[in-house]
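dumping this here so i dont lose it
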């Protein structure tokens, strides 16, 4: 029975009834919580699982805490039943009954063996360390049960949350991994032959190991929420899972690129052949033009034209071989490299042709300038001028003879232009006719009209 002296003033009948009602409600709430914990899916999973690591340690302590919870609850139930029996003896409780009820309801009336808390891994009540028994009031017993319930529920809910979230996601990712591996194998992406194949093997090993760890030690993958004291406050740690999911997505993109190569390989190889063929024809044209330039132009340095790029032709043949043997993972990087090199080769061939034919372009420009000035001289009525005729013929012989000295021909054309300009400036103006600085009857102006 309770200690009346430690319980304080004796309660009257109404106070006893109110205390019994409150303690009865607490008893019902605690019983409901304990039964819910007993039936919790996470607790059943923890009981049947082969646990390791952090989870094994915490579950051992939690099991002891749950056992202690029931011990406390049974003691609480017995004490509450005793109090109810005393109150039910008579309608108007005697002084002795009220004293006894006060000791039960407010005093330290519950005595438990001391090692019980230590067995559960729970902290011993203040000042009770090392004692053979511990005494509690019903109020402190409820507080102790609430503490043990919260810590036990936190373990159960956290483990259940990890088990509910991670294994299913890992299984879905593993299924996607299996489909990706089949697709990779069909396009030649295999371990040891392609980096993406090696990545698939590593992801497979990591996911297998991750699932085993999550099943046996779920609490190792739980992140408690900062500042939260509620049971189960936090979230599963998906760092490893997220990393492998991103890695698998990168592999899928790589395989998609290989599939694109398989679909477009023939078209790209045909285009490469066309580019290299055009580069060869351009280089052949440049070599022919170089011979013509050397024969027709004197005192000019003409760049040497290189031969066709045999290395690119060999690589193109290798690409065709990869395509025939469906080695798409090797074909993809080779085609990308070849496409850039072929574009560069065609550009180089065109630059060679331009450089080789530059002297012929200069000669053509000088010829055009000479003929344009001769036509201009004729419009001004000076076509028969002896000096102009002499200088024109000299420049013309230089430009239309082979080999042509471009420097001398340029000087000859310049002298012809200067002589014509001097005659234009000195010629008198005749009304109604074209003259220096004036156009014909349509109103156009000057020699440059």
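and the seq i came up w/
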């Amino acid at each position: 029975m309770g200690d009346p002296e430690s319980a304080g003033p004796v309660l009257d009948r109404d106070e006893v009834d109110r205390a019994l009602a409150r303690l009865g409600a607490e008893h019902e709430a605690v019983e409901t919580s304990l039964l819910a914990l007993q039936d919790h899916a996470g607790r059943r999973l923890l009981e049947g699982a082969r646990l390791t690591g952090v989870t094994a340690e915490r579950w051992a302590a939690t099991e002891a805490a749950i056992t202690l919870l029931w011990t406390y609850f049974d003691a609480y139930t017995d004490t509450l039943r005793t109090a109810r029996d005393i109150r039910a003896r008579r309608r108007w409780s005697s002084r002795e009954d009220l004293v006894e009820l006060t000791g039960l309801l407010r005093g330290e009336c519950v005595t438990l063996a001391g090692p019980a808390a230590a067995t559960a891994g729970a902290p011993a009540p203040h000042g009770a360390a090392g004692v053979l028994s511990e005494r509690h009031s019903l109020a402190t017993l409820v507080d102790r049960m609430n503490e043990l319930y919260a810590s036990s529920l936190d373990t159960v809910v956290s483990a259940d949350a990890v088990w509910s979230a991670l294994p299913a996601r890992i299984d879905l990712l593993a299924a996607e991994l299996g489909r990706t591996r089949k697709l990779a194998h069909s396009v030649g992406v295999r371990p040891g032959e392609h980096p993406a194949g090696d990545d698939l093997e590593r992801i497979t090993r990591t996911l297998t190991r991750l699932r085993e760890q999550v099943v046996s030690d779920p609490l190792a993958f739980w992140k408690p929420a900062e500042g939260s004291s509620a049971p189960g406050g936090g979230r599963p740690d998906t760092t490893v899972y997220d990393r492998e999911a991103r890695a698998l997505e990168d592999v899928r993109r790589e395989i998609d690129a290989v599939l694109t190569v398989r679909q477009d390989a023939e078209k790209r190889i045909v285009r490469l052949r066309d580019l290299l063929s055009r580069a060869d024809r351009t280089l052949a044209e440049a070599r022919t033009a170089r011979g013509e330039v050397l024969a027709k132009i004197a005192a000019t340095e003409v760049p040497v034209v290189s031969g066709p790029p045999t290395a690119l032709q060999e690589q193109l043949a290798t690409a065709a071989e990869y395509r025939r043997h469906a080695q798409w993972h090797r074909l993809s990087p080779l085609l990308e490299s070849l496409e850039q090199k072929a574009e560069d080769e065609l550009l180089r061939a065109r630059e060679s042709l331009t450089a080789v034919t530059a002297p012929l372009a200069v000669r053509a420009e000088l010829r055009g300038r000479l003929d344009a000035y001769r036509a201009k001289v004729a419009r001004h009525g000076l076509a028969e001028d002896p000096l102009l005729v002499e200088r024109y013929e000299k420049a013309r012989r230089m430009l239309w003879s082979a080999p042509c000295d471009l420097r001398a021909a340029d000087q000859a054309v310049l002298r012809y232009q200067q002589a014509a300009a001097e005659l234009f400036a000195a010629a008198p103006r005749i009304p109604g006719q074209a003259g220096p600085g004036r156009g014909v009857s349509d109103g156009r102006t000057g020699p440059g009209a």
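The two ends are 131 Å apart (CA to CA).
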